[in-house]
Request: fold
Amino acid sequence: MNTTKKYAATALAAALGVTVLAGCGDSDGSPSGSGASKGGGSKTVTLVTHDSFDVSEAVLKQFTEKSGYTVELLKSGDAGAALNQEILTKGSPRGDVFFGVDNTLLSRALDNGLFIPYEAKGLDRLADGTEQDGEHRVTPVDTGDICVNYDKKYFADKKLAPPQTFEDLLKPAYKNLLVTENAANSSPGLGFLLGTVAAQGEDGYEEYWKKLKANGVKVVDGWEEAYHEEFSGSAGGKKTGADRPLVVSYASSPPVEVLYADPRPKEAPTGVATGTCFRQTEYAGLLTGAKNEAGGKALLDFLIGKTFQEDVPLKMFVNPVVKDAKLPEIFTEFGETVDKPATVAPDKIAANREQWVQSWHSLVVK
Reply:
């Protein structure tokens, strides 16, 4: 996922997109424990991740106090870029654990042998359907849903019911209202494409996109442009005079609109078309050739522990993956529950992803 922290950061007008190496240690800046080198007996464990990863300092401190290991974060661009760097350095990884590969790209990581199998402690607490690799080469950490969001005010003013399903988006009433991201270079754009494949089938998704194009769908490069410049329901869109009341975003977008609004509204200004959602799951794994396997295993255990899992929603705006983690009130009050998201099996994505994207691009962009 991958855009979740960027999502919050954009709302706060923070700068993102640079590769950062950040160590978390004691108050004097030195690593906790002994032997901070990356050689044998190291008390530093390096987590390679995308720029969108975020965690509370207090949570990392708890990990250090419990395990004796200090976490060093190596942020490496978006999820795809970070994964590509690990593939290029496989066998001699830059860190010990990789976090951020999702179900749309999982096959690339597994096919390249990036991870050592490890059965993390607490897997029995995982939500159903989240563990996709029977060999335990990766551990699920969070889930999120890519969905069409709608501008409540626009549809109320027009006395028009917002769309709820993929089929609804083809109706003349919604002509020229939807903006989506380029599936060739955007995570939510790819997720939305995969959602249409799941809903329409491999034999029907191309015809669906022909009809959606005829109904005026607009394609832009990425999520930030789509959501903050083109979507009339977002705080950014209101400032730019955006005229598209439908956008491909996340089911967690409405709570974020509430969280960063000043003053805070009594209800979210945006809604979610729950029949258009595609489930995204992010994974972490112990890198093949990791210099600190013991520390890496301890970190994987911690990532699915209750402390980290309950920190996830308001730091990365995704859902915890374990059943006993509680959601913050802003999620339960303003968020949408997606009971039946679209999914596509990782092996099917692996076999068809490039062909689906190329076909989509030729139909919709060219």
In short: The longest strand covers residues 270-287.
